[in-house]
Amino acid sequence: MYYSTDxxxxxxxxxxxxxxxxxxxxxxxxxxxxFVELYAEQKALTGISLDDRKITxxxxxxxxxxxxxxxxxxxxxxxxxxxxxxxxxxxATKIASSFDKTDDPGVKFNIDIDNVIGKxxxxxIDNVIGKxxxTNDTKKINKITQYKIxxxxxxxxxxxxxxxxxDEFTRNYDSQISQVTVSYGDSIKxxxxxxxxxxxxxxxxxxxxFRVSTVAFGDxxxxxxxxxxxxxxxxxxxxxxxxxxxAKEAARRAVIKLEARPAPSGEIPVILAGGSxxxxxxxxxxxxxxxxxxxxxxxxxxxxxxxxxxSKLVTLIDDGTVTNEWGTxxxxxxxxxxxxxxxxKDGVLQDxxxxxxxxxxxxxxxxxxxxxxxxxxxxxxxxxTNTYLLPGxxxxxxxxxxxxxxxxxxxxxxxQVNTASGDFVFGTVEAYMVENGKITYPLRDANxxxxxxxxxxxxxxxxxxxxxxxxxxxxxxxxxxxGCGQATLRVTGITLGGTSH
Amino acid sequence: xxxVEERIPTDEIEIATSKLADYVVSLANSDEEVEAYVAxxxxxxxxxxxxxxxxxxxxxxxxxxIRYIKSGKLGFAWSGQIPISVSEATFNLTCDxxxxxxxxxxxxxxxxxxxxxxxxxxxxGIEPVNLNLFDAKLLEFDTxxxxxxxxxxxxxxxxxxxRIKTVEQSNYGDGLTVVSLSSTKNIHAVSKxxxxxxxxxxxxxxSQESHTGGGVTVARNPGDLDPTKVVEDAVKYSTRMVGAIxxxxxxxxxxxDPKITSIFLALLSTPFSGNSLAKKRSxxxxxxxxxxxxxxxxLTDDPTNQNAYGAGIYDAEGLATRKVNLVENGxxxxxxHSTETAKRCKMEPTASATRSSYxxxxxxxxxxxxxxxxxxxxxxxxxxxxxxxxxxxVTGVASGVNPISGDFSVGIEGLNIKNGKLDTPIKEATxxxxxxxxxxxxxxxxxxxxxxxxxxSGQTVAISSMTVSGL
Lengths: 501, 471
Known about the structure:
The structure holds 2 protein chains of 2 kinds.
Chain A: H1 12-15, H2 18-30, E1 35-51, E2 54-72, E3 75-81, H3 86-96, H4 114-117, H5 156-173, E4 177-195, E5 200-218, E6 221-231, H6 237-240, H7 243-257, E7 265-272, H8 279-286, H9 291-295, E8 316-319, E9 340-345, E10 348-349, H10 356-361, E11 371-372, E12 381-382, E13 386-389, H11 396-401, E14 405-417, E15 423-435, E16 438-443, E17 447-451, H12 452-457, E18 459-462, E19 467-475, E20 478-486, E21 489-497
Parallel strand pairs in A: 7-14, 13-20
Antiparallel strand pairs in A: 1-2, 1-4, 2-3, 4-5, 5-6, 7-21, 8-9, 8-13, 9-10, 11-12, 14-15, 15-16, 15-17, 17-21, 18-21, 19-20
Chain B: H1 10-25, E1 33-49, E2 52-70, E3 73-79, H2 88-109, H3 143-160, E4 164-183, E5 187-205, E6 210-219, H4 227-239, E7 250-256, H5 258-268, H6 274-278, E8 299-301, E9 324-328, E10 331-332, H7 339-345, E11 353-354, E12 363-364, E13 369-371, H8 378-385, E14 388-395, H9 397-400, E15 407-418, E16 421-434, H10 435-440, E17 442-445, E18 461-469
Parallel strand pairs in B: 7-14
Antiparallel strand pairs in B: 1-2, 1-4, 2-3, 4-5, 5-6, 7-18, 8-9, 8-13, 9-10, 11-12, 14-15, 15-16, 16-18, 17-18
């Protein structure tokens, strides 16, 4: 009933068969709901840490439960339970609808619970290991994710070996490396979504990640570096990556910064390396293009559709279907298929990103599949998936040579945006000074600050060396995995928060 | 509006969680160390937008985390799928699940590397203080009262200033938490707490620009919340940014708003952590007894102070919390330690183990950092500084502050300080320095202590020689 660590098979269809789902949804409608949704989840996680040459922790965790969403008028109620029993689910439905419906007409929904029982409307059962997708009767959902090696099928000792090997590679790189931490994580998550519009879908998501963090100690003090890899795949991740290379990158970044000088202060041209994080777009316009911010007029991109919001080199895509990337899935957490959306084309704003509530509220036909949540304990909201800038045709080396004085950023850290003002920051993790068209010396970590609409217009070169990278996006207290991508590009001027004058 | 919860009485939850934790500990053989952390939570959150309830969420959760140690090797497992059982009839079932978690923790221990410093804490003779962190009154308020609080602040903010364009969010939230921690080392720590908050984010501006400003109030029951403060802060912080421009790059004395000081102190806790010290990741290593800050700086972590948001009776290993001195008149006098890091560093434990919840093992951190207040009020600090920059918002803290190297660079919004007074607003700028220099350059510490949500109190603080980057 509750406890299962072996999530090899997706048992959600047994825990919540169609008839049971339909009964819960009908109960919600009988309590006055315009829309009822059931989101069930079972998740198992492994985490391993190595610190100071020791495997300090191997942990396994499991969580699972059902979240019930009830929409009445303009209000959304939400309750969740870790118990899959019908009585608990009905109780949660009652709690989620325990508010009075106001006179205001809210968002319009269809009610078609009979379709939940419909036999063909299923997706993804038994799809854990590379089987083909099943389609439903209204639209074909492509199975995006293919998993080869289920993490639970791999011996724990084999996972532990990876961390020890990475530690060894990292320490061998340079004697100035004084500390190494390595972390490994995998997760298997089954989800099932049924709603009063007639959806009954289920899917399995498997994610694996690996990270090496380093500290170097030298005359200038302590410096840090890291390298990480994260994909929506199983243990086959380690057949595809070069562990030694990841370890060495993490070490190199810390060691090189022992020689780093303070970064400049003030506005300066900035070159971002291909795959250096792509977080520029995630923060400069990604969040501002989420339909919930638009509906609340808390985005600088409100009422800007079909207007020029960036230089003609800016074509921005959000795409939940990129094979095995960190922000990829087959269906989103509202049961909608992932899709590829063109947000900005040649600098002109084309569309926003949508979840079900905002999409129905705007009476749209097409939902972009951007409704996501951290777990069954949370309401879904509009989130990015993999957000990337299409590559251009410049040579990355030419962009550097064409820059008289500027900063070259090889790797970015995180960032943050205020969607209302459009001001955003992002940090450097590996950066260099560019003088007379040449990369000269390394710079200490600093943040950059800019205004989204302003910076998008200042992109004057985009190269052809496109790369994706993984990240974790936080919004309203919920963390979800996302991808970012871009080729080498240049911003003609952005404020760098260093201390050198 | 109906009262939605059918709450289980809190004392029954205390008994149930404690019984479960003790049961897990009873599974240990004599050569095994076992610790069970059982956490129960019941939360409500309400969001209001444009005079409608946007969302109303209700949550009841329970989970268990088990640490297992044998021969210096640690294994850990957790589950968020433990049924909440307060009756004898279902207790056996709950124990079955807990036993599964125990088995996995035990299995996982064999993969750890032997470490002589890995062991569980033992009671060290310090008696727990008596704090009132649980206020039963919280349970008496019905949902409609809470909703009305959120409606009220939204209405008042909109009415207060015509430059307010909208209130992006007006939120109420509350929670009740019960934690039971038991171990084979004779630890039996049961604690409960209540908390609630009211917060709003206003957007002020005109057709050309938008600026956000927030306000928040926290208490142990909704009757003690201060809605007026939320309204005043949200309006003040958003409206005074209207007309903000990007400043020129310069070097200035910077004055932190109390909430920024609170954020800064929380960041500063990393180099003071015994874990950073033990792993040689702290820029404060080997500096005990040396001057590391301006002589005005006396910094403590005191979770036994009832007023502190992070006040607590026990740490995450079940030891009684105590006051820890970190900096006295600018001299480094201590670090925050768990029993493990204290032993590694050959120092005294300070009961500073923390954990986010049942799904993680303990780490080391502060609960209630506190700067000894100085003599000047915030206005007097502005007069003393005369010309500089007042910071009311920081962004990019996660990406721009490196607590290992000490590099500090964050985005800011705030106001110029001119002739001892707050002047025109500035935005899209950064301030930067290193944490090492900032400690030494803290030239004024305000008398205005604010007990803010988080791990540190806040007060107005002036720091000289910060680089302000803009144009």
